[in-house]
Structures are given as structure tokens and as C-alpha cells.
Amino acid sequence: MHISKENLLETHNRIKPYIHRTPILSSNLINEIAGAQLYFKCENFQKMGAFKMRGALNAVLQLSDEQKKCGVATHSSGNFAQALALAAKMQNIKAYIVMPENAPEVKKKAVKGYGGKIIECEANLEARETTLNKVVEETGATFLHPYNDYQVIQGQGTAAMELIEDYADLDFIIAPVGGGGLLAGTALAARHFSPKTKVIAGEPLGADDAWQSLEKGELIPQTNPKTIADGLLTSLGDKTFPLIQELVEKIIRVEEDEIVSAMRLIWERMKIIVEPSSAVALAAVLKEKDKFKGKKIGIILSGGNVDLGNLPF
User: Fold this and answer.
1) Do 237 and 201 belong to one domain?
2) Same domain, 27 and 127
3) Residue 186 contacts residue 173 (beta carbons within 8 Å)
4) Class of residue 118 by CB neighbours under 10 A (exposed 0-12, middle 13-18, buried 19+)
5) Are residues 32 and 83 in the same domain?
6) Longest C-alpha distance within the chain, in Å?
7) Strand partners, 74
8) Which residues belong to the signal peptide in this entry (predicted)?
9) Domain-terminating residue out of 91, 119, 143
């Protein structure tokens, strides 16, 4: 599917009344450490605490009245579950969320708080999908994929659109990559609104399916990911991968200790709460300082839904 500049502008206008236009912060100290000018787009301040609100809303707002009657369904262990539950609540429709039984309690609580109905399943993709199919069959709900969906991708791209609107001359935008919805949307936004800006992703070494997929030129699924960045455990999808392959310059892989120290730097120096997945983008810049020296860089801080009972420092 070709996603045009107009598609992205329509998406932004559609969701604008319902989302926060999140602030962009910078830190002189972090700029000094990085040797570059960094502009942090704070999606940790988005409604429900992450960028995923944008994509969920864009998809929900385009359902027909018939579809709205039956509600929406998805499977997610984290942020998309919360985003879809809240987007559905805003539109007064039901949300059925299939969550693995080992999903963080804090995320289950949030989904329930937004009025989502949780259906638990075993913690593997097969169980997620069979449980989801059963829910859809029984309820007639519309399945919305957490990232492998063009409406969701376009919604996620609006964070970078706002960043580019505020800072027109960025050399790079860096986003973390898990399933690729944020990265694909960010790359589309850069292509249409700031073609000189290169898009790069940060990815945990312990969950590097996107890096492997780009290296091989074909979709390599994620197997047994091990990383503290719990938002980045999923594989790319058949809709996100081609966009990333075409539009993203490279993926920088970072080690667990690099993720933790970048996260700590943001907490200590910027006085804001981000989850480990958010710190992956900064970790990538700090890892390859020579590449970014003296450049202007937008960094998307993807979310702040961190389990405070389980901090890595």
C-alpha cells in the first residue's frame, strides 16, 4: 500500500483532538556526552504513557458503526493493550484484550482501569492467536493488530511529524524497533516531510530480528528474545518490514548494559521516567558517537510505562 503525505496529514487531523502534542526536551549535559544536539520527543507523556495511543486511536476512529457495536480485540502484553482499551473507552465501545498470563501486573491493572476486558492465555504466540480467534468468533469484534496494520503505522508516524514541524532541520531521527510500527511510521513521516533527515533504529542485541531481517533481505522471525526492553520483543510484520527495508538507513544494536545506562542517564539528567525500550534509541547514539558527531538528532522516547517495582538500577 502506498502511504502518501495526504494520508499522514489526514491521520494527524483525525487524532489531534484526542491525543497530547507531547513536548520536546533537550539536555545540555546529554548533548555534551553525545557530542551532538539531541531533541527528545517525549511520548512517555502521551495519554496512557506511550506513542501507541496514536495508532490505536487512528484505527478505532475509522471503524464503521456496525463494527463499533461489536467492539475491538487485540493481543498484547503491554502498551498496545492499554492504548486500545483507552481508545475504545473514548469511543464508548468494548475492547477485548488477550494478554499472556505473565504480562506485568501493572499493565493488566491499567487495561482494566481503562475498561478493557482481559482474556488470559499461555505466554506464547500460538496461544495468543488461537485465543484471539476464539474471542473474535464469539464477539464479532474487529481485530486490530498492535503494529502490522497500515492505520496503526500511520498513527504512529504522527509523533515524528510533530517533531519535524518543531525542528525542521534534523539530520537524523532515531526510534526503537520492536514490531516496527513506530519505526515504519517515523520513516514515512521523514520521507514526506523532511526528506534530508535519515531514519535510524536502535534495537537490543538480545532481540535483533529487525537487524537480521535487513541483513538477509527477508523477514527473520524473532526467536527466544532476551532483553530488559520488554516493549521490543516482537518480530517485524509483513507490512512493517518492506517500509523499513526501503526507508530506514540502518539499525544499531545495543547491549543490555548500554540500555540500562542510557535509561539511567535520562532519569537522572532529564528528571523524566522512561521505560527501557525508550532508552534504546539514546543508547544507539551513544554507541556510535562518531557517526552522529555535531549533528542534530531527534530521538523518540517511546513510552514511560515502567514497572517501578522492578527497576534495573
Assistant:
1) yes
2) no
3) yes
4) middle
5) no
6) 56
7) 97
8) none
9) 143
Closest CA to 286 of 259, 306, 251: 259
Interval 28-64: pLDDT, tens: 999 999 999 999 999 999 999 999 999 999 999 999 9
Helix 158-166 and helix 181-193: axis angle, to 10°? Answer: 40
**Of residues 112, 292, 313, the one with CA closest to residue 200:** 292
Give the predicted TM-score (pTM) of the model.
0.95
**Would you say 161 and 194 are in contact if contact means Cβ atoms under 8 Å apart?**
no
pLDDT by 10s per residue, the chain, length 313: 899 999 999 999 999 999 999 999 999 999 999 999 999 999 999 999 999 999 999 999 999 999 999 999 999 877 899 999 999 999 999 999 999 888 878 889 999 999 999 999 998 878 989 999 999 999 999 999 999 999 999 999 999 999 999 999 999 999 999 999 999 999 999 999 999 999 999 999 999 999 999 999 999 988 888 999 988 988 999 999 999 999 999 999 999 999 999 999 999 999 999 999 999 999 999 999 999 999 999 999 999 988 888 899 8
Which has the closest alpha carbon to 135: 116, 152, 113, 163?
Answer: 116
**Secondary structure of residue 120 in the 3-state scheme:** strand
CB neighbours of residue 17 within 10 Å: 8
At 102 the three-state DSSP class reads coil
What are the residues whose beta carbons fall under 8 Å from the beta carbon of 266, sequence distance 6 or more?
Answer: 30, 40, 272, 274, 278, 279, 282, 301
Domain span at residue 183? 5-51+150-301
> Which residues contact residue 63 at a Cβ distance below 8 angstroms, ignoring those fewer than 6 apart?
72, 91, 93, 142
Closest CA to 239 of 132, 146, 141: 146
CATH number reported for the structural domain that contains residue 99 in this entry: 3.40.50.1100
Q: How many CA atoms lie within 13 A of 190 on its CB side?
A: 28
**Residue 88 shares a structural domain with residue 173:** no
Total structural domains within the chain: 2
Q: Are residues 41 and 114 in the same domain?
A: no
Count other Cβ atoms within 10 Å, centred on residue 219: 17
